[in-house]
UniProtKB/TrEMBL annotation:
Top-level taxon: Bacteria
Keyword annotations: ATP-binding, Coenzyme A biosynthesis, Kinase, Nucleotide-binding, Transferase
Xref: InterPro entries: Depp_CoAkinase, P-loop_NTPase
Name recorded for this polypeptide: Dephospho-CoA kinase
Protein source organism: Algibacter lectus
GO molecular function: ATP binding; dephospho-CoA kinase activity
Length: 90
């Protein structure tokens, strides 16, 4: 089996290419979708993200507080790297 990694910046066409693969019945694993599932379901990841971001404000009503986290990680590359290490470790 051949495995292909599809990477690129925002707006580079990753989603378009993934849709093309799906249309050809090529299995596609979208890491962003799976990471979002982990952030909402994994108690371990939830606990670590709460610790990283300094409290319960990382989650609202048991859902990831995306605006709060985005305001931090888009301004602090170190925090982004730490969050990615937590999510992609699981």
């Amino acid at each position: 089996m051949i495995v292909v990694g599809l990477t690129g910046g925002i707006g580079s066409g990753k989603t378009t290419v993934a849709k093309m693969f799906k249309a050809l019945d090529v299995p596609v694993y979208i890491a962003d979708v799976e990471a979002k599932k982990l952030m909402s379901k994994s108690k371990i990841i939830k606990r670590k993200l709460i610790e990283l971001f300094g409290g319960e404000q990382a989650y609202l009503d048991n859902s990831l507080n995306k605006p709060f986290i985005a305001s931090i990680i888009f301004n602090d590359k170190n925090m982004l790297n730490q969050m990615n290490a937590i999510i992609h470790q699981e």
